[in-house]
Specification:
The chain is 7% helix and 37% strand. By secondary structure, it is mainly beta. The protein has an 11-stranded mixed sheet with strand order 1-2-3-6-9-12-15-18-21-24-27, with helices on one face.
Length: 302
């Protein structure tokens, strides 16, 4: 088993911590205070990432996982350099809390690149690069809550990121009042749909992202409440949807301060949403500056 332990400082995630829902309450600190473990193979990674004791797990090189790796509570999973990543199978944050995933290239994983589910909370995904997975690149579902997705690059994929897995009554019972997610400073680069696709949640906050050559932007359905602000939509056929797919009920969506460059249709809007500013502080960059701000900074090298 290839693993090394120590107290050397790991590569840093965005300082000083997450912006958005993952900052609420006790915040999200991951494995801070725990040992630093450097892993170079799948077996060592699976062992280091499980359990609930704090640990910082540094991924060195490309790890090919045979099965989805369960990520326990109080963990920071971080790439040790721009070539660090995961392939073969994805990361499964299930019934876990206080998790940071950062600086990883996740490609060709099955079923999802990253799955956050079954009541997981305080999860921060930061500066990752996700593409070409079997199902979703990053899905959040089954009563999970207080999540921030920041400074990531999503590319070469169809079903990008989902918030809420089903329209069913069972899903409504588990998800209502949960699934609070913030997406900020991400690059959606030529992906097809689900940026994100949202059911039941309120409020999902989508701000200061760059949507570049994507057919479908943000989807709100099943009475979800989504705030879309300060984003740059470039060559997007449908920037926002309030009716999507087979979902029997529309969602609520408020848009403000966005730029729509060479988009085919106007954004769909409906209803009102709860202001996330009542729960956390954030600063909004000007939408016109977003492509330049994210250039070279969204993904693992930023």
């Amino acid at each position: 088993m290839a693993a090394a332990f120590g107290k050397v400082a790991p590569a840093s995630v965005s300082a000083p911590g997450p912006v958005g829902w993952a900052s609420v309450g006790q915040g999200t600190t991951g494995g801070a205070g725990g040992p630093v473990v450097t892993v170079t193979d799948a077996a060592a990674f699976a062992k280091a990432a499980k359990g609930d004791k704090p640990a910082v797990v540094r991924v060195e090189g490309q790890l090919r996982l045979p099965d989805s790796a369960r990520i326990g509570s109080n963990k920071t999973i971080i790439g040790a350099g721009p070539g660090a990543g995961i392939t073969g199978a994805g990361l499964n944050v299930r019934q876990s809390r206080n998790v940071i995933i950062s600086r990883l290239v996740i490609r060709g994983a099955k079923p999802d690149g990253i799955s956050v589910e079954e009541g997981s909370s305080h999860v921060w995904v930061d500066h990752c690069d996700l593409s070409e997975c079997a199902d979703g690149l990053l899905d959040i579902k089954r009563g999970s809550d207080l999540i921030t997705i920041s400074w990531c690059r999503f590319h070469h994929h169809h079903k990008t990121t989902l918030v809420g897995h089903s329209d069913s009554d069972e899903a409504r019972k588990s998800d209502l009042g949960k699934l609070r997610v913030t997406y900020h400073h991400n690059l959606f680069d030529g992906t097809i749909s689900r940026h994100p696709r949202v059911r039941f949640a309120e409020t999902v906050h989508v701000f200061n992202n760059h949507f570049k050559s994507v057919p479908h932007g943000v989807h709100s359905s099943m009475d979800a409440g989504v705030l879309v602000e300060g984003n740059y939509f470039e060559k997007v056929d449908y920037p926002t949807h309030t009716v999507f797919g087979k979902s029997p009920r529309p969602g609520r969506l408020v848009e403000r301060d966005n730029i729509y460059s060479d988009c085919r249709h106007k954004p769909e809007v409906a209803g009102m949403v709860k202001e996330p500013s009542l729960s956390y502080h954030y600063s909004l960059d000007k939408a016109a500056l977003i492509p330049e701000i994210l250039k070279g900074r969204a993904g693992v090298t930023g």
